[in-house]
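1st attempt posting a full record on here, be nice pls
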Amino acid sequence: MAIGSKSIPHDKINLKLILVSGKTKEYLFSPSESAGDISQFVFDNWPQEWGEEAVTKAEILRLIYQGRFLHGNVTLSALGLPTGKTAVMHLVPRESLPQPSSQDDLHKKKTSSNTCCGSCSCNIL
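the predicted structure (as tokens):
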């Protein structure tokens, strides 16, 4: 359900979605709805003014909240979003979620090891 300047029902969350182009649209959702539900709803009810940004399937739509990609099963209530208020998220087309950085893995390996060659310990005299 789209919302304009009307008041927000106390049991709903007004979600303001922003595209990369800067275009926005507001929708009302229940706290129990997931990121996947929201992506499907927006895909099924794609705004005419977003015509140039249309995608071919709901599965490539990703929500970003506070700088993090949301997995499809996370609900609005799990994010701690208050009802009766407006929350802002970015909506981007993306085939898959980003994988953890290989730099992070390399750093963990370097910092967790205190041996230089695996079979001995180095001592500074």
